[in-house]
Amino acid sequence: xxxxxxxxxxxxxxxxxxxxxxxxxxxxxxxxxxxxxxxxxxxxxxxxxxxxxxxxxxxxxxxxxxxxxxxxxxxxxxxxxxxxxxxxxxxxxxxxxxxxxxxxxxxxxxxxxxxxxxxxxxxxxxxxxxxxxxxxxxxxxxxxxxxxxxxxxxxxxxxxxxxxxxxxxxxxxxxxxxxxxxxxxxxxxxxxxxxxxxxxxxxxxxxxxxxxxxxxxxxxxxxxxxxxxxxxxxxxxxxxxxxxxxxxxxxxxxxxxxxxxxxxxxxxxxxxxxxxxxxxxxxxxxxxxxxxxxxxxxxxxxxxxxxxxxxxxxxxxxxxxxxxxxxxxxxxxxxxxxxxxxxxxxxxxxxxxxxxxxxxxxxxxxxxxxxxxxxxxxxxx
Length: 381
Ligand code: SF4
Hints:
This protein is α+β, with helices and mostly antiparallel strands. The strands form 2 sheets. It has a 4-stranded antiparallel sheet, sandwiched between helices. A two-stranded parallel sheet has the order 1-6. The longest helix has 33 residues, at 197-229. The radius of gyration is 22 Å and the shape is globular. It contains 14 helices and 6 strands. Iron/sulfur cluster binds at residues 19, 24-25, 29, 31-32, 35, 37-38.
């Protein structure tokens, strides 16, 4: 990204230019042909050598892109564990859910974004295919159950709207009820253990609403695939690219929804030993900016091995601080041996998964955001 570009944006700065949750709508965007991000991405597909950060390599591999690289060199390999941890995690938070709603429904009320909803992007498809139009209408209707603008204020006032906001309200109440550091101002967390009846009931209602959204999205993908297969006359290369972009975007949303549904299914049930789940309120100096449920792999090298390492023809990891195992010792974790640094991270997670209540988080929320690629990927095993 050119260094001068973020300075043109006063309010949101460089974050306004990032694609953090797959917001790009590809050929559905009027700037697609001249967009510098997409141009670089298309050029990267033809290049012999692509230099990218860990998160981007993992996200592309996890999304199963056919043109994902087959020979990978990870420099600064001691950061791989953290990058995999962020990439293969799931977060059902207000910010993530509202992004999902906006991607499907589009701008609402007085908001003047450049983004258009799914219905606007697929207008020609839906006027041609009745079943597709039906699925799209059902998806837009179901997406209205997700949080909307002003959700944080409604939660603070105790007046949530819709099942997902009601769930986040219960999450907020549970975290504060277990916290001893409410006045400290930093982020608060508590493990997802022994939830009370109100939290379980809210999770059940939210789960049903997410399932109600997942079904029409699946039906819409099937209709779009059918249109590509029996292409009508009007489906020129531009329309085809737009439909393909919509299928890709819908597939990622369905994966995210399925991770959220899995996480909610665990509330009140038996904990999965492969994951660490917790509830969190993200705050900066006492000001809340996100609330939700989080799920991370206990050992993120497992999804890393399956999604990134196994399909590759060759992977080389280099690091000045990475240490190999001593000769003759068997691997202790996952498909490969891990470093002392990784082992200590896994130990911390084990401690966290068995930790009692009243846990507080002393880390600044911004420190976690700094290591996150922003995309909450599927819980691939
Ligand atoms: S939505 Fe448009 S401007 Fe944004 S990254 Fe995609 S093609 Fe570029």
